[in-house]
Structure formats: structure tokens, C-alpha cells
């Protein structure tokens, strides 16, 4: 296999502070994503997962600022790119879907038009040429009645359908990397499974790598080949998915996995509760600061 | 859509009736009468007999409910009555004044829209910049400055000191005469629109779908054209409508100040001499304008926002 698709080195994100050092949200994050791989980033809310993903796209809002680091994509550093060349990559080579399908679409524009935009932006098509392509893209994400839905407005669609529209949009140009930031968190469980299957199927077919961000260990276990565990803005453990779930090394990961409820067990039966996790783990202790970053292809 | 508009137009009738009743009541409790404002030559008041005769001539001796009923019957036939002073039909008087009024109100609004909305947009593009600060300070002063004072200031500078423009009068509808009163009338709506637009743009730019648009790779210009303009219009169309609707009524101070022959000055003059039919007529027209603009705004709303359906 050739080198990684995206190589992130020492990514540090923070809020600049006039009187003193910046407040760091993400510290010295390093990992790589291989072509076609599904890489999971798991962690509690506030751990810096989304900020890292948005930093790769150059989409963090002030005051969040990328302070240090590199994200090498095809020999170019995404974090140091001009806005113009970044715009060319966005949506075309690297695309993104978000947690909230209800608000992520423009409420005043028709679905078809919002997808057609991708072809107008990145394939140089006219609007009339892009229209049928948008319908095709809707059909590819298994939206029933794609012609009709292309004429609909977002408020006329359910949350699950809207997320499919987002996926259709993100996959329209056959990107190298799809960043999916909690893509199923806002959906109900039955729809979640379908949407995940759809993402995996499309990406396998188009050879697109996925950076899947979730706080849901079940989703990560089901989807990913490799997993990074983040807490407090740091990557604590980076392992093959199977290895991580069978043999967690970091006390935080161990606590997290131990707190997973099992079907038929009671919360009190020997298993930890998530509420205890915070107290059980001393985040200032030296063993929390340790990281377990295993090279690719470790034995399970 | 057609049914909706028809229903909204029918709904105006009770509003107009209420307004008509209110004007009737106000004039019945207001001291003074048309005959009372007349003087027979010199400075002598009219004799009581003459006053009674004039009142009888205009039907003012009848009890209030009877007069109101007569008025409604004529109103239903689109007859606004006859002016006490000029003896002309009120409809003719209003017809002669309505064009200058609309001319003034629409030019003021055109000024407010073409300057206020772009200014608010530019200010929102660079929040905290010099342009933003100047625009917002200007907007607050524009909103807090009394119209007549701004009018006087404009007159003083551009008519008296610089002599560029005439200080008053209609000038047979020449543009030169329109400029100063239009600016004086349009400044407050301009300021309000600039503020509303700025707030609207910032609200839209902060929404999730703008992040999506950026993730798609749109340039700032494409993003504004495709994902901001229309969304901002939804937020400012209400303000815009209320301004256009109330402008005809607001114009009376400016019309008096600049001796502009519009509805406002006609109304003020008629109030002074208790020419009740004319006052009633002008107020009804001003209220009708407001109501019609309101329906129009709701229709425009439904056109630009697909989430709103008219029923």
C-alpha cells in the first residue's frame, strides 16, 4: 500500500489569549488516514473531535484557531493552504457531513438545487446539466422518488432523508475523504443503521476514506478499521478496532468500555456506570498522560 | 392564493369601519366645530343663529348615531362626502393630493431600500470595522433624530446656505423639489433597514447551513448569492412592509414643513378647521394603504419562504 491519504501531525487548536498563552482545545494530535479506510475518532463531547475535523476543512469559527501542526494531503498542507485552493478541495476531494441534518441544509432552496451546486462548483456544469445529476445522486443514496424529492424543500423531508441528502451532496464528486461528524447522533436507532450502511457502501464503491467522529462506541465498533480515543483534547489511544475493543490499554478506554451496558445485565451488576467514570479516572495522574499509539497493522 | 387575498381584503372592512367609528367619536368629543372656526369678516365670532344654520346645513345638528349611519351608507357607495370648506367632493380632493403623497413616500422608501440594505450588508460583512461602526452610529442617530429637525437642517444647508435645491413647494413635480423632503422622510426607515439587514445577515451567516455551504467549497460571492440573500430577505421583509405602510401617515410632518401638497398636509389643514369629511377621508386612505401593504407583505413572504403557505 502506498502512503497515507491524510497525515495529521501535531495539530494544536486553541483560543488565542491576549494576556498569556492560548487556551488549548486540542493538543498535539497526530494520526493518519489510509486511502479507502474508515478511521474512527471517539471521545466524549468537548474532547476536541469536532474542532479537529473542522480544522482540517478550515471551517472552525472564531475564536477557535489552529495554532500549530500540519495536515498533509497529497504533499500539500491543508492547514497552510490558500483559501482559494482550499475551496477547490472542499466538497470535491474532501467533503463533510454534520450532526444536525435539520439545520444543515438551506431551508429556502430546493434539495435538487443544493446538490446540483456541487456539480456547478466542481465539475463546471451549468445548472440545467447539473439538475439530472442531482437526481442521480439522490437515487444513489436510495431516496425514494428522487425526481419528486429533488423539487422538495428541506422542511418537507424527515431527518433521515435529510441526512441522506447531505450524504448525496458530500459524495457527489466522489471525494477521497469524507469527514462524518456524528452523522447519526440526531437520528433514531433504526435510521442510524441504514445511514451507516449507506455511508459504508458508497465509500467502498467510490474508494472514499472516512473519518468517522462519534461518541457512540457501538457505531465505531461496527464501522471502523482503526480507532483513536480522544479526551481532554488529546489522543489517548490509537489502535486497530479489534485490538482496542478486546484489549484496551489506556485506563480511560478501559473505563469507557467497562461502562458499556450489556443486554440483560443490571447497571449494578459488577459493571461500571458512566457516571462513575469521571471519578474513577484521575485525569491528572501520570498514567492518564500516557498514550498508547500503536503502529498500523498491529496483531489483534 | 387568490382566495387568500380575497379573504384578507374582506377582512379589511371591519378594520376600516372601526377606524371610521373612532374618527367620528374623536370629533364628537373634540371641542370646536367647523362653524366655530369661521369668522364673519373682522375678528368677530359668528352669531349663534348663523352657527346653528351652518351646522344644520351640514347635518351636524343630527344626533351622532344618525350621522354615523348616514356616513356609512354613503361610504358603502364609495362616497366620502363633501368638504365643508371647498364644497368639493372629498374623493376629488384626495385624488388631487394622492399622487404627490405617493411620490414622496415611494421615493423616500426607494432611498431607504437602495442605501439602507446594502449598507447593512456591508456592515455585517465586516463586523467591528470602521464602516460598521460608522453605519451603526449613523443608524442610531437616524432613528433618534426628529424628522422635522432633519428637514430643517437639510433646508438650511442645501437650500439656504448652498442654494442647490429649493427649500419648499411641489414645483409641478420637478425632481429638484422632491429631493430634500424625500431624504428627510426616508432617513429613519433607511437607518432602521440598515440595522435590521445587518442583524439579519449576521443571523444567517451564523446558521448551520452556511457552514455546509462553505464545506461544499462555495466562494464568498457564491455563498451570498445562493445561501444568504434570500434568507436575509425573509428576515427584513416585515420591517420593510411596516415602514412602507406607515410612511404615508408619517409624511404629514415633512409635508407641512416642505409645503408639499400631499394627503398629510391636507389632513392637518382640515383638522385645524374641523373639516370632518376631509379628515375622515384622508385617514381612511392612509389606513387602507397600510392594510393593503400588509397583505402584500404576507404574499411576498409566502413567495420567498417555501415554509409559509397561505391558507
TrEMBL record, chain A:
<dbReference type="InterPro" id="IPR050388">
    <property type="entry name" value="ABC_Ni/Peptide_Import"/>
</dbReference>
<protein>
    <submittedName>
        <fullName>ABC transporter ATP-binding protein</fullName>
    </submittedName>
</protein>
<dbReference type="GO" id="GO:0005524">
    <property type="term" value="F:ATP binding"/>
</dbReference>
<dbReference type="Pfam" id="PF08352">
    <property type="entry name" value="oligo_HPY"/>
</dbReference>
<comment type="similarity">
    <text>Belongs to the ABC transporter superfamily.</text>
</comment>
<dbReference type="InterPro" id="IPR027417">
    <property type="entry name" value="P-loop_NTPase"/>
</dbReference>
<dbReference type="InterPro" id="IPR013563">
    <property type="entry name" value="Oligopep_ABC_C"/>
</dbReference>
<keyword id="KW-0472">Membrane</keyword>
<keyword id="KW-0813">Transport</keyword>
<keyword id="KW-1003">Cell membrane</keyword>
<dbReference type="InterPro" id="IPR003593">
    <property type="entry name" value="AAA+_ATPase"/>
</dbReference>
<feature type="domain" description="ABC transporter">
    <location>
        <begin position="8"/>
        <end position="257"/>
    </location>
</feature>
<keyword id="KW-0067">ATP-binding</keyword>
<dbReference type="InterPro" id="IPR003439">
    <property type="entry name" value="ABC_transporter-like_ATP-bd"/>
</dbReference>
<dbReference type="Pfam" id="PF00005">
    <property type="entry name" value="ABC_tran"/>
</dbReference>
<keyword id="KW-0547">Nucleotide-binding</keyword>
TrEMBL record, chain B:
<feature type="transmembrane region" description="Helical">
    <location>
        <begin position="102"/>
        <end position="124"/>
    </location>
</feature>
<comment type="function">
    <text>Part of the ABC transporter complex GsiABCD involved in glutathione import. Probably responsible for the translocation of the substrate across the membrane.</text>
</comment>
<feature type="transmembrane region" description="Helical">
    <location>
        <begin position="178"/>
        <end position="195"/>
    </location>
</feature>
<keyword id="KW-1133">Transmembrane helix</keyword>
<dbReference type="InterPro" id="IPR035906">
    <property type="entry name" value="MetI-like_sf"/>
</dbReference>
<feature type="domain" description="ABC transmembrane type-1">
    <location>
        <begin position="98"/>
        <end position="297"/>
    </location>
</feature>
<dbReference type="Pfam" id="PF00528">
    <property type="entry name" value="BPD_transp_1"/>
</dbReference>
<comment type="similarity">
    <text>Belongs to the binding-protein-dependent transport system permease family.</text>
</comment>
<protein>
    <recommendedName>
        <fullName>Glutathione transport system permease protein GsiC</fullName>
    </recommendedName>
</protein>
<feature type="transmembrane region" description="Helical">
    <location>
        <begin position="278"/>
        <end position="304"/>
    </location>
</feature>
<feature type="transmembrane region" description="Helical">
    <location>
        <begin position="136"/>
        <end position="158"/>
    </location>
</feature>
<keyword id="KW-1003">Cell membrane</keyword>
<keyword id="KW-0813">Transport</keyword>
<keyword id="KW-0812">Transmembrane</keyword>
<feature type="transmembrane region" description="Helical">
    <location>
        <begin position="232"/>
        <end position="258"/>
    </location>
</feature>
<dbReference type="InterPro" id="IPR045621">
    <property type="entry name" value="BPD_transp_1_N"/>
</dbReference>
<dbReference type="InterPro" id="IPR000515">
    <property type="entry name" value="MetI-like"/>
</dbReference>
<keyword id="KW-0472">Membrane</keyword>
<dbReference type="Pfam" id="PF19300">
    <property type="entry name" value="BPD_transp_1_N"/>
</dbReference>
